[in-house]
Please model this.
Amino acid sequence: MLELPDYPWNQLAPYREQAAKHPGGVVDLSIGTPVDDTPQLIQDALTDGANSHGYPTTHGTVEVRQAIVDWFARRRQVTGLGINDVMPTVGSKEMVAWLPLFLGIGAEDIVVRPKIAYPTYDIGAQLVGAPPFATDDLDELSADELSRVKLIWVNSPGNPTGKVTSAEQLKKIVEQAREIGAVVASDECYAELGWEEFEGQVPSILDPEVNGGNLDNLLALYSLSKQSNLAGYRAAFVAGAPNLMPTLINSRKHAGMIVPGPIQHAMVVALNDDEHVATQRELYRARRDALRPALENFGLRIEDSVAGLYLWCTQDRPSFETIGALAQLGIVAGPGAFYGTAGERHVRVALTASDERIAAAVERLNSSANR
Model:
């Protein structure tokens, strides 16, 4: 029997109950699920693709693969991709969880992930019995450990921290990975949500400036959930590594991991339209600009948070103590402890609430600070 850790978000139940007692209702800023409407042009595309009587292909239609290639060139400065080097996936979480298995990683191998990280990186390693190693610096590993590293996860912009890994830092990771023969998988699903100096400038692992034009053993994961409000569509893709992609495609065929045909059709429209992405980015910018000073007034120090859908905050005390204080105001946030021991004194505050709920949170935080 496979035994995995309890799903961490279940631990928030008592804090949700406390927040629900607030007379103004709950403001849920915990899980980063989009609340705004899916753009109408994408809904229309889904309807147009509804006559989907045959099995879709695992590798994806030529149209969706071309749209992915074009998007990388237009939005991420990635050249050299061909339509055989990309594949739609059932959300990016699918690939995060199952990539170690697809790569043939075993119990003697090591999977490296960031110190503060999305929990599914560890789950993917646990599914194949491989030990995960939490580090932001491969130099922290011994020579023996380095020899056993088979997969290195990069997450930029980072969840939960909103930290961006620079092109120079990515280049160093690629060089080190090539020295030891490891695959680098870069989870980049917040890349369209760069703020301040990183607006439109979040580098990809597939950028030629990072990899010298050689995409072997380099994978980028991306999701349309955040940029296009498509979380319910499970619309994502993986790209790169022409030496690995045929095996990934074949493995997913055997496992029945197929993005539905109507979703693939809608992805084409979403990827080819930048206007709706820009509109959504401005909604998040306004919410971020409203929440940030209110959180600071409440006594939280915001760190990193230069990209993505979250503000990474600390009061220099255990995260659940801060979660409890916010729950008293009817606000639910995400405990940093969910993301590794390095996050145990932080909380993650999501921007994914309606303007009305964000305004309610701002008023409560400011009022509490002024008492």
Observations:
- DSSP finds 14 helices and 13 strands in the chain.
- The longest helix spans residues 275-297.
- The CA atoms of residues 30 and 333 lie 4 Å apart.
